[in-house]
Specification:
Number of strands: 11
Radius of gyration: 23 Å
Order of helices and strands: EEEEEEEEHEHEHEHHH
């Protein structure tokens, strides 16, 4: 049927449609904007409350604010509905990301021993590759927030034969402050129950093979320049602030599928720590 009133003379003939809102599962590090307030931040926590779920966002100054989970967010400029992550689907027996044989068993209750890593990105990468193995063993991985607090944390933890601690350190090369901290740990009475090892890289990003993320090599960044933003600037990725760093890390982490995607200087050390904290359990 023809339009009995004719076309609106002011119309261009095209129908304007609102952008479709997509459902997006939240994940740590995802940067979104809360539309009503204009608040921009990276997802750091999902909290269940009596009134529903709240998503905690951390802005560029390190301040955190909570908002209701659901509609009213922008992700890369597009409207989204933030939803809870779906439960992990148990895979059929095969190989885990670390190359171990997958077994159909429930995760063990966390044991007394721990693996400590320096930061959040380290913990996420270890979880991505060795998470299945660690759950079977009942080993918890915890970020320290930096190696400077290691001695204080160990004194508080008081390691013993049933409560071992494996520590994965960044930039563990001769002559650095990291090696001096390791020497101090070795002089303590409980030193036999602690194993500190690590990789030679400034940051865990470099432990991911460059080819995995589509670059020829990890660039050198002069001392005094923000390392992550310096890397992003040199490889041609967005590098304005910490939000770009957060997006870049999610891109890098998403490219890692198995133990073969990281350098042996990381994988060998993590395997060593897992063996150390699980000794005598089988």
């Amino acid at each position: 049927m023809s339009d009995r009133y004719g076309r609106d003379v002011l119309s261009s003939g095209r129908t304007h449609q609102r952008p479709k809102t997509q459902r997006v599962e939240i994940k740590r590090g995802m940067v979104v904007e809360e539309v009503q307030t204009g608040y921009v931040g990276a997802v750091v926590k999902l909290e269940k409350t009596n009134g529903g779920f709240l998503v905690h966002l951390e802005d560029r100054r390190g301040r955190t604010q909570a908002f209701p989970l659901g509609f009213g967010y922008l992700l890369e400029g597009k409207p989204v509905e933030l939803v809870r992550p779906r439960p992990a689907v148990h895979k059929q027996p095969g190989r885990t990301a670390s190359g171990s044989r997958a077994v159909q068993t429930k995760a063990r209750v966390a044991r007394g021993s721990r693996i400590w890593v320096e930061g959040k990105h380290d913990a996420e990468l270890v979880e991505k590759i060795w998470g299945d193995d660690l759950r079977v063993e009942g080993v918890v991985v915890e970020p320290l927030g930096g190696l400077d607090d290691l001695m204080e944390a160990l004194v508080e933890f008081q390691p013993d034969a049933q409560h071992r601690v494996g520590v994965l350190a960044d930039h563990l090369i001769e002559g650095t402050k990291e090696t001096r901290i390791v020497s101090e740990v070795a002089s303590q009475p409980w030193a036999e129950h602690v194993r500190v090892t690590g990789h030679p890289y400034v940051d865990i990003w470099q432990a991911v093979k460059p080819s995995v993320v589509g670059i020829a090599e990890w660039p050198q960044v002069p001392r005094g320049e923000d390392w992550k933003l310096g890397v992003l600037r040199r490889i041609g990725w967005p590098h304005e602030d910490h939000r770009d760093s957060a997006r870049a890390w999610q891109r890098i982490l998403g490219s890692v599928k198995s133990i073969g995607d990281v350098d042996w200087t990381l994988s060998g050390r993590v395997e060593e720590l897992i063996d150390f904290v699980t000794v005598g359990r089988h």
